[in-house]
Amino acid sequence: MDEHFHVNTPLLESVTMSKLVGTTVYLKMENSQPSGSFKIRGIGHLCQQLATQSKGVVCASGGNAGMAAAYAARKMGVPATIVLPSSSPQVVVHRLQDQGATVNITGKVWDDANAEALRLAETEGLTYVPPFDHPLLWQGHASVITESAACLGPSVKPGAVLVSVGGGGLLCGVIQGLKDVGWMDVPVVAMETEGADCFNAAVKAGKLVTLDDITSEAKCLGAKTVCKKAFEYSQCSELTIISELVTDQQALHAVETFLDEERVLVEMACGAALAAVYSGVIRRLQDEGRLPTLLGPLLVIVCGGSSVDMKQLSHLKHKLQC
Ligand code: PLV
Fold first, then answer.
1. Atom of ligand 1 nearest to the CA of 42
2. For the stretch 105-138, what's the b/e string if a residue is b when 16 or more beta carbons lie within 10 angstroms of its beta carbon?
3. Residue 117 CA to its chain's centroid (Å)
4. CA–CA distance from 121 to each of 105, 240, 307 (Å)?
5. Tens digit of each residue's pLDDT (9 = 90 or more) over 134-187
6. Which ligand 1 atom sits nearest the alpha carbon of residue 64?
7. Phi, psi torsion values for 128, nearest 5 degrees
8. Is 303 helix (H, G, I), strand (E, B) or coil?
9. Is 250 in the pocket of ligand 1 (CB under 6 A)?
10. Does residue 222's CB lie within 6 angstroms of at least one atom of ligand 1?
11. Alpha helices in 38-109 (DSSP H)
12. What is the pTM of this model?
């Protein structure tokens, strides 16, 4: 099928961020996808491959994978059940219902909700839509890089790509895209928040690690175990993947700064990537010699997110005391 559900998003230059890092910063505005995040790229692709004859799809999500599944299902005329953990904010429940989805709240974190989604797929005969661990998702997400490359043109190659990591699906898609356009030597800075750091824990341990709990407020980064493919990429000598953490306060501060500077509201999962610029992670990596001092343009995947509105933003500010 040639038609797809995602749109070609704008690639914007940020003057303020460029000033901060000392190189041109390009923002790939995935917040402007119809489902509010990059997730529609992979999930739209997967649904088109696996769910055309389906009696219904079921997806466990921190919010955004669910938004993408609900959007794709609505366009395909298929019912959608989205299982969320109780940590998901009310705003995302309403947005999912607006997309026509049935919302089921089960468990405390995404892993609990996922067990319920797998059970429903089995007992109700629904098509299971994984939020981050499937080759079709990575293939779909890869278009975020091929599109950026087409927009930048043959004479511009990024010095690094900046992404947030939850279960690692976006990271796998970005790597796939870098391979597709011949940019395998471009370093990827993989950002998580402390307390939702399953990729960082795996990189440090040299093996997959399952976190005891998700203690970060960036709930959409809150998978307890990163997907195996993302870990394998981190061990691959042909790739440079730098895993870094920020605090919840830094991620939230990044969300606020981005709202002020770029006039766009994103959720904390996305704030984690933005904080690499605003909190000086990129500068530090340069000082440590892990990124070159003379860095080429930075490509930031502004992954977006629907789990935020002004009410949720003030709630988070109060909770995190910032
Ligand atoms: N969120 C997933 C997994 O949650 C979800 O169900 O929506 N940025 C945003 C705005 C996201 O929503 C997510 C994933 C990520 C980044 C990270 O993407 P991933 O999971 O492919 O690494 C538990």
1. 21
2. ebbebbbbbbebbeebbeeeebbbbbbbbbebbb
3. 20
4. 16, 37, 25
5. 999 999 999 999 999 999 999 999 999 999 999 999 999 999 999 999 999 999
6. 7
7. -80, 125
8. coil
9. no
10. yes
11. 39-50, 64-76, 90-98
12. 0.98
